[in-house]
Design brief:
The protein has 21 helices and 19 strands. By secondary structure, it is an alpha/beta fold. It has a 5-stranded mixed sheet with strand order 3-2-4-15-7. Strands 9-12-8-13 form a 4-stranded mixed sheet. A two-stranded parallel sheet has the order 1-18. Helix 11 packs across helix 12 and helix 20 packs antiparallel against helix 21. It comes from Streptomyces chlorus.
């Protein structure tokens, strides 16, 4: 866990690993809700939850008032904090222990070597909450395998954390059959017993309805795209480069900035930014890949702008302006940030958390280094058309067999871990114990080795606060991140299935699995645009049209997401 970094929703587990668990979420919205929709062969319970039924299930939203951010949320952005940290001024958001001293076992993914159960961080958290949490940490890289085995057994822990990227196969049906309905404890005004949970935005809770019941405790995420086109602002300023405002201007800049003999190239693989520039919805979360055009559902790969984005990215590779590592495909296996920091290329796209991560990493060894986020432009110039990501993608579930005492103790844990930035509970959850795990230097909390090894991947996975970005050591970065989200959020649309939990029919769910590899082959010149057109034709005939009809039925019965 990188000290002082924030999280955002991401295309994969890499985004989570690159971030700390200062969770990000969208502002609350009241839109139609669908829970675990599926056909007869989907492997999950059929049915929808919308309108009055949704209102009966969802927790009441009560905005937190304990701490006031320096930058308020706007257009789906995180809130921002730009001041130094005053430990003496930390607020208290949980005035009394809600835990009753019971034991709760929690299984969650962990990247790295898990600490021993009696470490000072776990002990301090359990003392604060009033619950004896026993962690069953599992290797995050192989978590899906362990998860499947555990859920297929009769020995399921009290609480199980399941990231969205691990919800393939039979996992969605296991969620509806193995985990408890939390509605009796959280729906409506009942959530007010847990004020920090009440402050979690509604659309994050919306994503937590599985099989018609409120089963998940969410880690919220901003719905603004998390993929930022970064550029070396220090080099741009030195060379006098202007920021591009169209796809053509980007190509012209890239050619001007590239000098292969001097081992400097303009950019990395810009495919993700190309999709945003040309107005293509995300392919990472399948329900969001569908949009409405002319009253008909259209999948992202059927869009003309999808092919245009691939062709534009292909031209960058063909023009020799992309760093050779990316042309060889190394960007998929190695971290390109080292060569970006060395100035070997000047522009690349990555998760929003990299803004702080790279700034902090280079601060001492390369003081002239300055990374900044380029605003996404429309391909022809002007404003872009961007599409929202999901408002939550990591959830904690409580065993259906758990007693009421265990459920309430779990909610006591979640109420502490969802505490907002600027509170004592947040500091302990995210930084551990002062002096043992971190020290404060000029208003900046800095973790030591013990903190970096122990205060990570655990309690933050149970539940998190609304989206927050705070870097007291680099306040300008926090301000830049939030303001970038606010500007891009102004151009962000919600697709018809935003915020919905949908399990596709099992026989149709893998239809587009090969598209990403084909995309990469096309932009690198190994395949042609015609190969993608043929792949889309095959997709339609092999079940894509049937999948469209399946989604259309959901839309006809429930209506699109509002906003």
């Amino acid at each position: 866990m990188t000290p002082n970094a924030s999280t955002s929703s991401g295309p994969s587990r890499r985004s989570f690993l690159a971030s700390t668990a200062v969770a990000t979420a969208a502002v609350a919205g009241g839109m139609p809700l669908l829970a675990a929709c599926g056909g007869a062969d989907s492997g999950s319970r059929e049915g929808t939850t919308s309108g009055k039924d949704a209102k009966d299930i969802l927790p009441a939203f009560v905005a937190g008032s304990v701490v006031t951010p320096d930058i308020a949320s706007k257009n789906g952005s995180a809130v921002g904090f730009t001041g130094k940290l005053d430990l003496a001024g930390l607020k208290t958001s949980v005035p009394k222990k809600l835990g009753k001293g019971g034991k709760v076992t929690i299984m969650a993914p962990f990247w790295g070597s898990p600490p021993k159960g009696d470490n000072a961080y776990y002990t301090a958290m359990n003392d604060l909450i009033g619950v004896d949490v026993a962690w069953q940490n599992q290797d995050g890289n192989t978590y899906d395998q362990k998860l499947g085995a555990v859920l297929a057994s009769s020995d399921v822990p009290d609480v199980v954390v399941i990231p969205g990227w691990n919800m393939g196969g039979k996992i969605p049906s296991a969620i509806t059959s193995k985990f408890a309905d939390l509605g009796p404890y959280l729906s409506g005004d009942k959530v007010k017993e847990y004020p920090n949970l009440a402050a979690i935005p509604t659309d994050a809770w919306q994503r937590s309805i599985f099989g018609g019941k409120l089963r998940g405790l969410p880690m919220p995420a901003s719905y603004v795209t998390n993929i930022v086109p970064y550029y070396r602002k220090d080099i741009f300023d030195e060379e006098g480069y202007d920021l591009p405002t169209s796809a053509d201007e980007f190509v012209a800049l890239a050619k001007d900035a590239t000098n292969a003999k001097a081992k400097r190239w303009a950019c990395g693989d810009m495919k993700w930014t190309a999709f945003n520039t040309f107005g293509v919805p995300s392919g990472q979360e399948k329900p969001l890949g569908w949009i409405e055009e002319g009253g008909k559902l259209v999948y992202r790969a059927e869009l003309e702008q999808y092919l245009e984005a691939l062709e534009w990215t292909r031209k960058l590779f063909a023009a020799g302006v992309v760093h050779p590592d990316f042309k060889l495909g190394k960007s998929q296996a190695t971290d390109p940030s080292t060569k970006f920091a060395a100035g070997e290329f000047l522009i690349y796209n990555n998760d929003i958390s990299s803004w702080y991560g790279l700034t902090a990493a280079q601060a001492t060894q390369n003081p002239d280094f300055e990374i900044w986020g380029m605003d996404i432009f429309g391909h022809g110039g002007g404003d872009p058309t961007l599409y929202a990501t999901q408002p939550a993608n990591i959830f904690a579930f409580v065993n259906k067999k758990a007693s009421e005492a265990v459920i309430r103790d779990t909610l006591a844990v979640a109420n502490v871990t969802a505490a907002p930035y600027g509170t004592k509970e947040f500091m302990l959850t995210n930084y551990g114990v002062e002096g043992t795990h971190y020290s404060v230097e000029d208003g900046v909390p800095v973790k030591n080795d013990t903190g970096n090894n122990h205060v990570v991947n655990a309690y933050v996975m149970v539940a998190s606060p609304a989206p927050t970005i705070a870097h007291p050591d680099f306040a300008n970065v926090a301000k830049g991140q939030v303001e970038w989200q606010q500007r891009m959020g102004a151009f962000t649309r919600k697709t018809p299935f935003y915020g919905m939990q949908i399990t596709e029919p099992s026989r149709l769910t893998s239809l587009s699995n090969d598209f990403e590899q084909l995309e990469d082959d096309i932009v690198r010149g190994h395949k042609k645009i015609g190969d993608m057109q043929q792949a889309v034709s095959d997709w339609k005939s092999k079940g894509g049209d049937k999948l469209r009809d399946w989604y259309q039925k959901i839309l006809d019965e429930n209506g699109p997401a509002a906003g």
